Amino acid sequence: MSSVATRPAGPDDLWSVDDHLDDILGSVRPLEPIELQLLDAQGCVLVEDITVPVSLPPFDNSSMDGYAVRVADIAGASEEFPAVLEVVGDVAAGAGEAVRVGPGQAARIMTGAPLPPGAEAVVPVEWTDGGLGEGPVTGMRSRSLAPEGSEGQVRVHRPAEARAHVRAKGSDVKAGDLALEAGTILGPPQLALLAAVGRGSVRVRPRPRVVVMSTGSELVQPGETLANGQIYDSNSFALTAAARDAGAIAYRVGAVADDADTLRSTIEDQLVRADLMVTTGGVSVGAYDVVKEALSHAGDEDEPGSGVEFRKLAMQPGKPQGFGSIGPDHTPLLALPGNPVSSYVSFELFVRPAIRTLMGLEDVHRPRVRATLTADAPLRSPKGRRQFLRGAHADGTVRPVGGAGSHLVAALAHADALIVVPEDVESVEPGTEVEVVLLG
Predict the structure, then answer these.
(1) Residue pLDDT, tens place only, 389-427
(2) Integer CA distances (angstroms), 212 to 107, 207, 260, 332, 433, in order
């Protein structure tokens, strides 16, 4: 990102969006790596290259249920003139010592079982009579119900080439290959690969623990009855979900009333489980802006360098913001405005990149694309402010969703993008190419 303004000289000057973000990302450091068991490492970022200690698969094995055979023994086989082979036993997945297949012989083999010595190919059971002496069958009889199927004779009705239906040793990955690179986010397929190559644990940067807290005496928890002047707390749910979506382990704290001492006490209680704290509400210039009151002087002589600075940003929505660190470990804290849209936009622009930085990722931002604006009228934007409008993006176009009000939660629920209007633009005509932040 390029900065559009120098950092403010005075407390009443506006910060640019870029300078505020740079200040946050310049202060947040990736979490220290730890060794975790595989399932505990899900969603974490790998900090080491993983090489393959043993080839996958580690031996030639069958890709079908059928019979392991020698190619010469079934050359020219057909339903009219089947090749008749002696069945010398079963080869099951996980079996120990394998039987040997000699001339004129076959071994009944299961999917994943090692190709027995002497065998050159596997014929699917559907190409045989299954040892029943009749026409082609559709499957094998269970060994527990028909143990005699592992002996006697089998008629093979089709020929096969060498290595047919055989998974070669190392056909997935070979010993010494690079399995996963440092910086990889570990999802289910990556964890499967780690397990397959024998890794029970792995060194990663842990998922950051994020505590989300709403403030405001007017807030009521969903499911409770609203009294006059009250509203339901939606911000803490939105931001906790957004933090989890970003890769964090997120904890939601019930709304805190407009009391500075209560807020400070609640924050202190939550620090034990926080790598990052996020508050919403109480950061503007009102008489009841409790976050600003409680945290403006959070640093003290026992915690040098800590404290939260409250700023005004040249953006809409989301002008009031706070950032700093608190507690003995200097835990980063981002204080977001309380209006739902302002809060969510601020999270996407500032908190999500901070979470991704804590995870140790290189690319911490949402993808941005250019799209053609489709709208019934020009978009208006205040001069000197970078505006972020909710939008719906599809097929190279984007259309506004809802109005510009920072309280319009319903419109936010139908948006999958943010339309960016630069600081020096006051009007955007339909058909204009605009920058779009993709949220999905």
Answers:
(1) 999 999 999 999 976 554 567 888 889 999 999 999 999
(2) 62, 15, 17, 12, 36
